[in-house]
Amino acid sequence: MSEQNDQQNLSGDEPRTNLIINYLPQSMTEKELYSMFVTIGPVESCRVMKDYKTGYSYGFGFVNYAKAEDAATAINTLNGLQVQNKRLKVSFARPSGEEIKETNLYVTNLPRNVTENQIEDLFNKFGQIVQKNILKDKLTGLPRGVAFVRYDKREEAQEAINHLNGTIPDGGSEPLCVKIAEEHGKQKAAYYAGWQAGYNQSRDKKFAPNSALNSLSH
């Protein structure tokens, strides 16, 4: 399905049954996500969004309910729920993947001992942070000095670039490089738009919306 077709399909009025869940723990599986949200009502589909190649979780997912009232109840009930070391943000999925383009920042030259709280403190003054991920070395488990920070709006991301790019943070020794995560951001936006436009279509068997539910029955 082309991007143009995606946007056309997104233009119609649809029942507000589709939720986006941010701040998922990195280890959370689709089965666990489904089990949490099905307690509210029948779930038609759910998916944790991951990198195609590495399987690395982006830290967010989608849950589509059969009924709009169940989706609203899920927001009221599960938004802010503490799960492991994360506090979930549950909200209605926005109508277009276009809206999240250029909101995801790629940040390098961070101190190697940087924490998520420090990332939050550094970036939250410029807008609402939807998601943040500190990349870690697979062998040592230690931070690599690289992170992704995604804002709710592209102007917030641009504001962060304007103020933080080239600055040296507390505890750092090099100027930060803060820029739009081009390929990473495009892939996430495509994921988002594709899910929104096609959760009731099976473009690809691997990514068909009901595949997550089918896998739960095995």
UniProtKB/TrEMBL annotation:
It comes from the Eukaryota. Residues 17-95, 103-183 form the RRM domain. One of its GO terms (molecular function) is mRNA binding. One of its GO terms (biological process) is positive regulation of signal transduction. InterPro entries: Euk_RNA-bind_prot (IPR050502), Hud_Sxl_RNA (IPR002343), Nucleotide-bd_a/b_plait_sf (IPR012677), RBD_domain_sf (IPR035979), RRM_dom (IPR000504). Gene3D superfamilies: 3.30.70.330. It is found in: Nucleus. SUPFAM superfamilies: RNA-binding domain, RBD. GO terms for cellular component: cytoplasm; nucleus; ribonucleoprotein complex. Keywords: Nucleus, Repeat, RNA-binding. The keyword Repeat applies. Coiled coil: none annotated. This is RRM domain-containing protein. It comes from Cotesia glomerata. The lineage of its organism: Eukaryota, Metazoa, Ecdysozoa, Arthropoda, Hexapoda.
